[in-house]
Amino acid sequence: MPALKISGRLATIMAFNYNKNNLLPAFGILSGALVWGLIWYPYRVLQDAGISGPLGTLITYTLAMGLGAFMLPRVWREFSTAGWWALGLLLSAGWANFGYVLAMLHGEVMRVLLLFYLAPVWTILFSFWLLGERLNRYGYLVIALSMSGAFIMLWEPALGIPYPQNVSEWLGLSAGISFALSNVVSRRATCLSVETKTFSIWLGTAMLTAPLLVWQGGLPAQGIGGESWLILGLISIALCSVSFAVQYGVTHMPANRAMLLFLFELVIAAVASYFLANEAMGLRDWLGAALIVSASLLSGKLYVEPEVKA
């Protein structure tokens, strides 16, 4: 299976040149990749039980905020001084999470995820703009590989210029852009603690979800059964713990290297979508995936990195 070959290559690369100082950040990011490679499935189960994606997202992230309510005094203090960085993290992380859930609920898992993982291209741009990380000779190759992979996946001769074919694919692409921005902003916002960055993810996602639910007609949570509440609670606990781990990772690791480790999510999702959703990718999809994966693997070699600005 191609996913197993990718997994072997990832294991080799990720095991190279790690010491005690970056094992914990790497573990944090890998735990996030594991959870997000699987979390689309319980949201689909909830949708089949009558709980829409927006409603399930709002409930789980609100419950996560409840679990982390002890952090509110610190979060409030840091938000009041962080200014635009706090707002940028709220909006970018919020849409990355909400857009991802919506896209995975209604689209083909691997096509959506591969569009999401054009993120190395956006990471290059945002890292240059916000962190001052400049491309070395691999940079343009990464851009070419990512865009070529997307072109191959999306090309339909009858439709002309390739672009995402449905709303889910557009959501996946936009969520990937927001994901790249949120990781770069998280590293740039040195004035924010890991706790505040984590709470920002939950709050931002809930803030963006609530207006959509109101527009759709309200918050019909009263008809949710006990089994569905159990699933919602378990998702919330997973989100609460993994959000801490991921924010610790992206805070203590360069943005481009973090993106490399997030790539493990592709392997998890490929296996999960095959066994849980009976989805299979065609030859053209695998070829496009190979190019996007190659770009992500090279993204760990992109920069001569300056110190992160204070």
Report on the structure:
The protein is mainly α and 310 residues long. It has one domain. The chain has 15 helices and two strands. The protein has helices spanning 2-15, 20-38, 40-48, 53-67, 72-82, 84-106, 109-116, 119-131, 139-154, 167-188, 194-216, 226-251, 255-262, 264-276, 283-298, and strands at residues 134-135, 303-304. A two-stranded antiparallel ribbon has the order 1-2. The longest helix has 26 residues, at 226-251.
Task: Briefly characterize the structure.
By secondary structure, the protein is mainly α. The chain has helices at residues 2-15, 20-38, 40-48, 53-67, 72-82, 84-106, 109-116, 119-131, 139-154, 167-188, 194-216, 226-251, 255-262, 264-276, 283-298, and strands at 134-135, 303-304.
What tags apply to this protein structure?
15 helices, 2 strands, two-stranded antiparallel ribbon, disordered C terminus, mainly alpha, 310 residues
